[in-house]
Amino acid sequence: MAKLSAENITVTYENEPVIEKVSISLEKGEIVSLIGASGSGKTTFFNAVAGLYAIDEGKVFLDGEDITGQTGKVSYMLQKDLLLAHYTIIDNVSLPLVMKGEKKKDARKRASQYFDLFGLSGCENKYPTELSGGMRQRAALMRTYLTGNNVVLLDEPFSALDTITKNAMHSWYLDIIREIGLSTIFVTHDIEEAILLSDRVYILSGVPGRITDEIKIDLPKPRSIDNVTDEAFVSYKRLIRERI
Q: Quick check: 24 pLDDT over 80?
């Protein structure tokens, strides 16, 4: 049984389909990328899976349970970190726990256990403006994780980072998912990023958006920026570019 499966998802806007019969599966511990041109419906698909958009047709299942249209079942991180400027980092990351009804003191105590794991020790009482872009994204990922589900939807979380920071975040994220058992669907426009991180890549194309290809990335892990000139890596890059 897949950890998460979206089956034949269709979402319309003003009676016109934005995405049509989109099906994606995610196994436990996998990273699956969704890649495609702007306007193909990647974010619409995420919003549908997260229960934020009404689904006109299709179903979403988490561990075999029908969660179609339900919010709070999967964790969802947008492109911007959306940290609250007037909250300290520990209050930012523990906010999902407080919103679920935990006392602020208890929520802070639980969140504090993860600062070392997420590379943020010593940042608990700092404010977002005091952190680098990479550290802010780590904080946002911790907050996303603390929403309580090991299935994470990431919508271009590293796109605003400089190349050096982005490469470091890729390596760090591959380590963290093994440590805490995350399963991830990852939206990106960056073909290299998709190949570096993913077990499989889905290509979403057309208007309305449809899945036109699924490509298994059969390269050894862990992968790093040093691999991008390897012949096999370049072949995958060419293949994905041709099929988008």
A: yes
Residue 178: closest CA among 197, 203, 191:
197
**% of the chain with per-residue pLDDT over 90:** 60
Per the rule left: phi > 0, alpha: psi between -120 and 50, beta: everything else, 29 is left
Taking residue 221's Cβ as centre, other Cβ atoms within 10 Å add up to 12
Distances (CA, A) of 56 to 18, 22, 69, 118, 145: 11, 12, 10, 38, 29
Question: What string of DSSP letters covers 44-109?
Answer: HHHHHHTTSS--SEEEEEETTEE-TT-SSSSEEE-SS----TTS-HHHHHHHHHHHTT--HHHHHH
Q: What tokens appear for 231 in the block?
A: 């012949």
Q: With pLDDT > 70 as the criterion, what percentage of the chain qualifies?
A: 99
The four Cα atoms 105, 110, 113, 115 give a dihedral, to 10 degrees, of -70
pLDDT in tens, 152-175: 999 988 887 888 888 888 888 888
The residue type at 36: G
Give the mean pLDDT of the chain. 90
Residue where the block lists tokens 């209050």 = 91
Contacts of 12 (CB under 8 A, 6+ apart): 18, 56
**What is the structure's pLDDT at 244?**
85
Q: Residue 96 in contact with residue 146, Cβ under 8 Å? A: yes
The single-letter code of the amino acid at 48 is: A
Find out whether 53 and 235 touch, Cβ atoms under 8 Å.
Answer: no
Mapping DSSP to helix (H, G, I), strand (E, B) and coil, where does residue 183 land? Answer: strand
